[in-house]
Each structure stands twice: as structure tokens, then as C-alpha cells.
Amino acid sequence: QVQLVESGGGLVQPGGSLRLSCAASGFPFSWYDMSWYRQAPGKEREYVASISTSGNTNYVDSVKGRFTISRDNAKKMVYLQMNSLKAEDTGVYYCRVSSYWGQGTQVTVSS
Predict the structure, then answer these.
(1) How does pLDDT run across 4-57, given as a tens digit for each residue?
(2) Which of its termini does the chain have fewer beta carbons within 10 Å around, N or C?
(3) Alpha-carbon distance 23 to 5, whole Å?
């Protein structure tokens, strides 16, 4: 069965950095595009970034230049490096493949 397990969230001050990880299993990882989404308190879940099987990346405008998505096909991992974090980046971050979601990891940006 498909499993996605996120980790790396936490509390960080504005301007700080975090690196989120998503460990994937149960499907041929290298065959699939992977994505990160987030959900802020009281808001809809929103797209953050994605990476294709060939390594092409896309980002929502609000994180361009600050976040970097990457993947390691050998380890079946996808990462989200988040720099220059802002309070508005606070939320639960989810890893997604096709119609499958991880359980999420909480990111809180606060002084």
C-alpha cells in the first residue's frame, strides 16, 4: 500500500529555515511526480511545490526564491527546503502522490 511519511516540521523564528522530508513506499517512486501542499489554520489546503519524474520543479508564487523541492529516487524521498520563513508559511505541510496524502507535519513560524 502507498505510504507517505512526512517529518522535519517544528517551530522556527521568522527568517529561519527548515527542511521537510517525505519518505515514500508502496509504489514505483521514480515513475511519479511528487508534490507538497500546506494548510494554514482556518484555510483551504493549498499547493506549494511539485517535482516531476525528470526533476522539473514548480512553485506557488508566494514561495518562489525561498523554497526548493528535490527528490532522491534511490532513497524514495522528497524534500522541501524552506528558507527565509515567514509567519504566513505556518501550517501543516503534506506530501502528495496521485490521490494519496501523508499525515502532515506542522510548521510554525513565530517569534
Answers:
(1) 999 999 999 999 999 999 999 999 999 999 999 999 999 999 999 999 999 999
(2) N
(3) 5
The confidence band for 102, taking pLDDT boundaries of 50, 70 and 90, is very high
CB atoms within 10 A of CB 72: 11
**DSSP H or E segment with residue 39:** strand 34-39
All three cell numbers of 66: 525561498
Report the alpha-carbon distance of residue 17 to residue 55 in Å, rounded. 23
Grid coordinates belonging to 104: 502532515
Contacts of 83 (CB under 8 A, 6+ apart): 17, 66, 67, 68
For residue 27, what is the DSSP state?
Answer: S
Q: C-alpha 47: how far from its chain's center? A: 9
Cell of 9: 516540521
Q: Which residues pair with 50 in a beta bridge?
A: 35, 58
The two counts, helices (H) then strands (E), for the chain are 0, 11
